[in-house]
Design goal:
The chain is mainly beta. Helices cover 15% and strands 50% of the residues. The chain has a 7-stranded antiparallel sheet. The chain has one domain: Alpha-D-Glucose-1,6-Bisphosphate, Chain A, domain 4, CATH 3.30.530. The termini are close together. It is built from 2 helices and 7 strands; from the N terminus they run E-H-H-E-E-E-E-E-E. 17% of the residues are buried.
């Protein structure tokens, strides 16, 4: 059984600036820097942030997974990823796919993330 989980984060930097992080591999790199005890390793296996990019994230305890960028739409600021490998992929622990949107809202922006488990 699949379910959908949504998150919404309001940001003050504006949608364009936020997209510079989310629309590339920079957000994964920033997350690793911010959470070094949780994300112990990040490898960009293929690509440079465009469609087809594959990243491998290794978490504390040795758990790792790979995700592939399946859509990167800079005009509409939408990125979609798909989990392609990982120990808990098929039991619902990891999102099977996710969609990230960076939208303008007032003087800032909002990031919407929908995950499908």
């Amino acid at each position: 059984m699949f379910e959908q989980v949504s998150h919404e984060i309001k940001v003050t930097g504006g949608a364009t600036k936020v997209w510079e992080l989310y629309g590339t591999t920079q957000m994964a790199r920033l997350a690793k820097e911010a959470l070094p005890d949780t994300i112990v390793k990040l490898d960009i296996l293929e690509g440079e942030g465009d469609v087809g990019t594959v990243i491998k994230i290794t978490l504390a305890g040795g758990f790792s997974y790979k995700e592939k960028f399946t859509k990167v739409d800079h005009e509409n600021r939408v990125k979609e990823t798909e989990a392609i490998e990982g120990r808990f992929l098929h039991n619902g622990t990891l999102p099977v796919s996710s969609e990230i949107r960076s939208e303008r809202q007032g003087r800032g922006g909002v990031v919407r993330d929908q995950e499908h488990h």
